[in-house]
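Catalogue entry: protein
Contents: sequence, fold tokens
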Amino acid sequence: MTADLRATVETYWTAADERDWATFATTLAEEVLYDLPQTRERIRGRERYLQFNREYPGDWRVRVERIVADRDGRQVAVRTLFAVGPEEMHAIHFFTGDEQGRIVEITDFWPEPYEPPAGREHLVERY
């Protein structure tokens, strides 16, 4: 039986919104893979992904609007609302978990394609 990935993902979002990076780290497998198809960026590994989030600019807030998990507890889809100042945008996120309920893969989809901001080249690979 797998651990509860849905609960892990809920913890992930709460920790991200609170900038609680120690708790955030506990939700991730060491070999986590983060994929941003719109910017064609990929981050491999927990430490790089943590750094990416710690360094992300702006005073953003996130609210989970919906979470859907599969019956096996290995896949979770989430719809969020991000706010940066007065600007709000929805995003869709897909999570895959391991047997311990940690996140091993994340794919984020944002409303519009965009070029990645400068300054994160040391963390990402482009494809």
